[in-house]
Amino acid sequence: MSKRRSLQDAADISNKVPVMEKSSQAHKKIIIYLLAVILLLSALPPATCAENEILLNGTGIFLTTGESWSFDQGYYLKIKSVNQGTNKAWVELSLNGEVIREGILSEGETLVYSRNGEILNITLDTIYSSPQGELLTFKPVYQYIDSEIPEPEIKDKTENHQSDDNTSDSRLDGNNRSIPGFGTFLALVVITIVTYCLDKRAKKK
């Protein structure tokens, strides 16, 4: 009986070994896949969603006839003229001196400019007319970052007085991040190293 039992135990152990090896290999593959996903996601460039990056969030502005309002990224809103009889305003939107949108607005109407997503949303709130001229208020006014134009500088000017060492370090770091495929290459290197280590560990066992 003891002989049969020992043989049965040996058979059970031999049957369990392949299962354990398969389980170990499955765990190894899962770890590799997880590392690959994490590293590849970290290697992706940050998404530039203009609709989520807001510069003006419902603020109010006012202008008189002939004046212009300067927005970030080179956008300008100009009041061309006001018709006091119809209580309508002729407004002009330009980018770096080039007219990109015009409109004749009544109170409550909106001028919208979009390019790969909404960039400007300007509502004419009230037109105040007098013998001396006209005053126009715009509210709400929304401006979103235009991904095709360099983002405006929002850092404080005092940050420009950093040491040369810090500046050079930040430049090197920026260059590494801007190298095409650098993040993906780094991810593949790490995955290869992890796979090699796991294989070596499995062979020792």
From TrEMBL:
Note the superkingdom of the native organism. Answer: Archaea
Q: Which residues form a coiled coil?
A: none
Annotated ranges, domain S-layer family duplication = 62-156
Q: Mark out the compositionally biased spans (Basic and acidic residues).
A: 152-174
Q: Where is this region: Disordered?
A: 152-175
The alphabetized UniProt keywords are:
Membrane, Transmembrane, Transmembrane helix
What transmembrane ranges does the database entry give?
30-47, 179-198
Pfam families, from UniProt? S-layer
Name listed for the protein in its UniProt record: S-layer family duplication domain-containing protein
Its source organism is Methanolobus halotolerans
